[in-house]
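Tutorial, part two.
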Amino acid sequence: MTQWVEGNRITLLTTGDEYFPALEAAIDAAREEVHLETYIFENDLTGQRIAECLARAARRGVAVRLLVDGFGASNLVQPLRDILEADKVSILVFRPELAKGRFRRNRLRRMHRKLVVVDRRIGFCGGINILDDRDGTGEGAPRFDFAVRVEGPIVTDMHAAMRRLWKLVEWTRVGRRVGPRMDACPPPPAYPGGQRAAFLVRDNLRNRRTIEDAYLEAIEAAQREILIANAYFLPGRRFRRELRVAAQRGVKVRLLLQGKREYFWVHYAIRALHGRLLAAGMEVHDYTATWLHAKVAVIDGHWATVGSSNIDPLSLLMAREANVVVDDSRFAAELQSILETAMVKGAEPVVTESLARRPWFDRLLSWTAIAVGRIAAGLIGTSRLEGR
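Running the prediction step on this input gives:
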């Protein structure tokens, strides 16, 4: 069951155009501590901008900690390290890539979270990495993605999760403290009339299914509508079954999925599911206006989630992820309005007739991708692409 916390202030941020200015403003106002986790920290204009912002905070005497993933951030390239380490920003790498040519099952256990806590009172959570989300061009539309700015009691939970992981990486990787001591966070004050929310993490210890179970709990309780926007949508059997059961009892189920081909096999594996989803009574919309990187959902006009977790085996079974869940009709309405506009203006509905018109080699690639995924799932030890 989701453990709700009252009295929070949650602000929706759409794309990097809203996220990065809000993040910079919070860091520039920091007085004591900035702690940032990201899967990717790219050496582009946006990455350099955020690195300079972190360095400015460190020069003011703020304790600045940066945790990046060893695969996604490629161990953080030297030009960015030079900017950060010159001003004593503390840096740790989660699971550094030491043997890139060797296959190891635990290599896929990545730190995929995108979290920030500033002064133990302001938090950010979402799916936006530290990179130019216009692919370095500075032109065109940004990736379609979301984050939230959080104030209130659940910032304590965010800080505690980041503190635990920092200490784990600190002692397992270097065996000593890196940077100033990271103390526990006293609970920030609740906002009168604030939003009910929960902070959820997925790890390989006590929280193996926390995010997936929160989705399933909300889907099972749905009475009217389910709207999911997810970049890599490869749910297991149980997840698909609950969506199918919801559709059968009259719930309107709509899926906004990545229509552009980003990763070859993932793209075709997702396309292999289209027929099943349509046959189960769901709507599928392929988003093609720009890259879809969102991991969000709205259910029954009051339950919503924004975070880093895709609905695929890597996110739900292996990676460290973080989502914020909000039970608030105003927040849900804002997110739903943006998603519905994206479906109308940036996506194409997938219909049964269009599936029949797909060329034979397209269908062959789709089913080959599913077969490859199942084999890979067995090799990495999850035992299934399909899920339970």
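The chain has two domains: 5-174, 199-380. In part three we will examine how such features are distributed along the chain.
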